Predict the structure of Threonylcarbamoyl-AMP synthase.
Amino acid sequence: MARYFDVHPVDPQRRAIGQIVDLVRDDGLIVYPTDSLFALGCRLGNAEGIARIREIRHLDDKHHFTLVCRDFAQLGHFVTVSNSLFRTLKAATPGRYTFILPATREVPRRLLHAKKKTVGVRIPEHTVVRALLDELGEPLLSSSLLLPDEPEPLTQGWEIKERLDHQVDAVVDSGDCGTEPTTVIDFSGPEPEIVRRGAGDTSLFEQ
């Protein structure tokens, strides 16, 4: 049965954040709010957690997992970013974007796109997520909580707990976080490709 954490959206309770992070470090799988949708998240090296995310979402090996990072210093350990691209990404973060970039050797092979050897990264603008990342000290391996064959994402923490009570270890609720997923932009080719138009404004990348 999943634990339920009601976390203040502006001033997250330190005790709750510590307990959630302890679950993640113990290879737990959590549902947590972001600045777009709720997401599934686990520790980067949690092979079982990754398998559980794939099972919950019915994902194949072409799916881009996302490393949710605290800042650019952390992000730079896991993806390759040129100086010119750094300025572009910096202008759009933190925010509601996922960037697909070539992965470094720090990223486990099972997380990479099977052919491209890329991974998604993002730096969110959400107080609770940032508190979790500060406490954890490493990225959260994540995937948006979009259930198969569901027309709309789940937006209520209590409903998520009811639906996934025996599939995740904790549900973190800090209120409604919206129904629109991140905008996804692939920078692994010669030109940026907008893979999904979502919550983030695409005009920065369509000059």
